[in-house]
Structures are given as structure tokens and as C-alpha cells.
Amino acid sequence: HGSMDHGSMGHGSMQMFFHDGYSEYVLFEGCLTKSVGAMVGACFVIFFLAVLYEGLKFLREIVLQQSNSLGDKSVYTLGKLPTGSSQEQMVMETRKPSITNRMLTGSHFIQTLLHVIQVFMSYCLMLVFMTYNVWLCLAIILGAGVGYFIFGWKRATVVDSNEHCH
After folding, report:
1. How far apart are CA 153 and CA 157, in angstroms?
2. CA distance readout (Å), 17 to 33, 44, 129, 131, 134
3. What would you report as the CA-atom Rg of the chain, rounded to the nearest whole angstrom?
4. What is the pLDDT of residues 60-109, one digit of tens each?
């Protein structure tokens, strides 16, 4: 049809195959790239979001490592045992805090907030990729690659069990 205008949207339907062009809706109805310059700008924004996404995964790992190193404290660290306590009671009293106490820590709240942001960003990047616009897809792939190059070498694990869209 003649109204495709170099892009992916025509009569409200999406092209469900890889295509190039510059006229593309990027996540929101108000974010329509109508020129090559707008598409280049959108690609830069998406590129940096993909880099930030990789950085966020690294930040979550740092927060987790810090909370694990702080969370290994026992109930009786320097104090004396109560009078009449046996060695068996001492072992039982030095266990880790309860699940409720660990869930209500500041680091767990931070970890939860970072997780929600990571899930949101991963789905937004997935939706951008699902426009099937080659330029936007390349921006995501290159941004993820640069982000991994910057942050990935510092990570303790290569496989991320918290990954949502890989």
C-alpha cells in the first residue's frame, strides 16, 4: 500500500519481520520517529538504555555481595552466653536471623527496587526489539555488548539467574 512512508506502521498494523526505515513508534504513541535524525536520536537513547541495563545487573550483584557479607553475623558475637547455657545452646543461638528479619532489611528493599527497575527495563528493551526495526535492534545489541564490555568483566558469575529476557 502506498501509505507505508518508509517505516513500519501503516493502518495501525505492525510489520512482523525485520525491516529498515526511520518511521517507527518507540514504546509510546507520542514517540514516533518521523525523520532519519529522529531515528538516529532514538537509537542513541536505546543504545544507552541497553548499556545502563547491563550496569544495573552489575549494581544488583554488588548490592547482593555487600548484603551477604554483612548478613553473616551471629546473634552472640562478643557477648557472654547466659548463665547455665551449654555448648549445644550456643550453637543454636548463633544461627542466622530469621527469614522475616532478613526480608525486612534495607538491602533487601534496595535489591527489590533494583529488581523491579531491571524487569521494567528488560521488557521495554524487548518491546523495542519487537518493532523489528533493524536500526533499533542493532542499538540494543550494540548497547548490551558495550555494557557487558564495561561491566561484565567485573562480575563474579557469567550466568545470571535473575535475567529475564535472554
Report:
1. 10
2. 19, 22, 11, 9, 10
3. 24
4. 888 888 877 765 443 434 455 566 655 555 545 455 667 776 677 777 88
Task: Give the whole-angstrom CA distance, residue 7 versus residue 25.
Answer: 9
Which sequence spans correspond to the domains of the chain?
Answer: 109-158
Dihedral angle, C-alpha 125, 55, 57, 139, nearest 10 °: 20
pLDDT digits (tens, 9 = 90+) for 41-67: 999 999 999 999 999 999 888 888 887
Cβ atoms within 10 Å of 36's Cβ, excluding its own: 13
- The sign one gets for the Cα dihedral 20, 21, 24, 27 is positive
Backbone angles phi, psi at 58, to 5 degrees: -65, -45
Q: Under a CB-based contact definition with an 8 Å cutoff, are residues 108 and 102 in contact?
A: yes
C-alpha cell of residue 49? 538504555
